[in-house]
Write a structure and sequence with these properties.
Keywords: Signal. This is 1,4-beta-xylanase. By secondary structure, the chain is an alpha/beta fold. The protein has one domain: TIM Barrel (Alpha-Beta Barrel), CATH 3.20.20. It has an eight-stranded parallel sheet. Helix 12 links the parallel strand 6 and strand 7. Helix 5 runs parallel beside helix 7 and helix 9 runs parallel beside helix 10. The chain is globular.
C-alpha cells in the first residue's frame, strides 16, 4: 500500500495535535471520571454514554433541491416543507437516520420568531421520518457576502454557486461586529436546548476556509463560549477539516464534546485519520465525506465508518439548485451531465443515481 511522504506529514501533524494539545494531557481513563458542570466540556464517559444511546449515525448533509443556499431554505418566502417532506422520505427509505442542516443568522435576524417556527416545522417533518438533525451555525465556505431576500439563480454547471458564508465578510473577522451574533446563538439554542429531535450542535463549519485561516479563531472561541452559557442537553462540536490548521484544530477538538471531522480522501488515508482521532477517547462522527471522483465513495468509506463505529454523514441527498453533483474545481458551464456525479444520492424524481449504492446504504443501515 502506497504511503507517501505527504501522507506521513499530514498524519504526524494530526498526531501532534492530539497528543500535544492540553486537552489530551490526561489519560482517557482519568478524564472519564471527571464530572462536567454547566459551561464545561463533557467528560469522555458522558460523551460515550450519549453515543451508545443512539443507533449508528448515518445520513447526509441536507438542503432541499429547491434551495440554492441556507437563506433560500429558511426564509419565509422560499421555505418549502412539501419538498423537504418528500426528500426526507427518500432518505428514510434507505435507512438514513440523521441529517446535517445549515442554519443562517440573517434568516433569524430578519424574523426571529418566524425562523424558529420554521426550524420547528422542519424538525417535525424530520421526526415524522425518524430522522434526527445536526444543526450547523456558522460557516466559512463559498460566497463571502450573504444578503437576505431573493437569492441568485444557480450558475450553470458550477458547484455551490450560491452558497453563502455565515456571518461572512467582514463580520467574521471583526470581534466588535460579531458580538451581535451572540443573541442569535443564545436564542436558537435556548429554544431547542432540550429538543430530542436534535442530535448535535455543530457550531462552526470549516473555520479558516476561504483564506481566513486563524482570522476565524476569535469567533470559534466565542461561539463555544456562548453555547456553553446556554448549556444545551445536546453535545457541542466543530469539525476539523484541514490538518495543517493546528491552532484551529486544537481549539475545535479541545472544546468539542463529540469529535467531528471532514474527509474526502480515499479509504487508506481515511482509515489513518480515524486511527488518530480514536486516541481522543471520544465518539467520532464524520460529518462530510463522499466525493466519487476523489475515490471517497459509499462502497469504500461507508463500510469503513461502520466497522470503526464512526458516524457517517455524506454530502448531498438530491440533485438540485446547489449543483453539487458537479465537482468543486471542474465546472461544466454548458450544464452537461458529469461523467460521474461528485455528490448526491437521488435524482430529482427520487430515482437513485446509482442503485448499487442505495442497496449498499440500505444494507449497512439494516433497512
Amino acid at each position: 500500500m502506497l504511503f507517501t511522504f505527504r501522507l506521513m506529514k499530514k498524519i504526524l501533524v494530526l498526531w501532534f495535535l492530539l497528543v500535544g494539545s492540553s486537552g489530551f494531557a490526561q489519560p482517557a481513563a482519568v478524564r472519564s471520571k471527571a464530572r462536567a458542570g454547566a459551561g464545561e466540556v463533557w467528560p469522555v464517559a458522558r460523551a460515550q454514554a450519549w453515543y451508545r444511546a443512539h443507533p449508528w449515525i448515518s445520513g447526509v448533509n441536507f438542503i432541499p433541491s429547491t434551495a440554492i443556499n441556507q437563506l433560500e431554505m429558511w426564509q419565509a418566502a422560499t421555505f418549502d416543507p412539501v419538498t423537504i417532506d418528500r426528500e426526507l422520505g427518500w432518505a428514510e427509505g434507505i435507512g438514513f437516520n440523521t441529517m446535517r442542516v445549515f442554519l443562517h443568522s440573517l434568516a433569524w435576524k430578519e424574523d426571529p420568531a418566524g425562523f424558529k417556527k420554521r426550524v420547528g416545522d422542519y424538525l417535525a417533518l424530520a421526526n415524522k421520518h425518524h430522522i434526527q438533525t445536526i444543526f450547523v451555525f456558522f460557516d466559512d465556505c463559498w460566497n463571502k457576502v450573504p444578503q437576505a431576500g431573493l437569492q441568485p439563480a444557480p450558475r450553470t454547471g458550477v458547484h455551490n454557486s450560491g452558497w453563502v458564508q455565515d456571518p461572512g465578510e467582514p463580520i467574521s473577522r471583526d470581534s466588535a461586529a460579531f458580538s451581535q451574533l451572540k443573541p442569535y446563538v443564545h436564542d436558537v439554542l435556548t429554544a431547542f436546548r432540550s429538543d430530542p429531535r436534535i442530535l448535535l450542535w455543530d457550531l462552526y463549519n470549516e473555520p479558516g476556509n476561504s483564506d481566513k485561516r486563524t482570522a476565524s479563531l476569535p469567533l470559534v472561541r466565542n461561539v463555544f463560549a456562548w453555547a456553553r452559557e446556554v448549556n444545551p442537553a445536546q453535545p457541542l462540536t466543530s469539525g476539523i477539516w484541514a490538518w495543517d490548521f493546528t491552532a484551529l484544530n486544537a481549539l475545535q477538538v479541545g472544546n468539542s464534546d463529540v469529535v467531528t471531522y471532514h474527509d474526502y480522501e480515499d479509504e487508506a488515508w481515511h482509515r489513518r485519520v480515524i486511527q488518530m482521532l480514536h486516541t481522543t477517547g471520544r465518539p467520532l462522527v464524520c460529518t462530510e465525506y463522499m466525493a466519487r471522483p476523489r475515490n471517497s465513495r459509499f462502497s469504500t468509506i461507508m463500510p469503513l465508518l461502520k466497522r470503526e463505529n464512526v458516524g457517517a454523514i455524506s454530502w448531498g441527498l438530491v440533485e438540485g439548485k446547489t449543483n453539487t453533483k458537479y465537482a468543486w474545481d471542474t465546472p461544466l458551464t454548458d450544464g452537461s451531465e458529469p461523467v460521474e456525479w461528485f455528490h448526491e444520492v437521488f435524482r430529482r424524481d427520487g430515482t437513485p443515481y446509482r442503485r448499487d449504492e442505495t442497496e449498499l446504504i440500505k444494507k449497512l443501515n439494516s433497512k
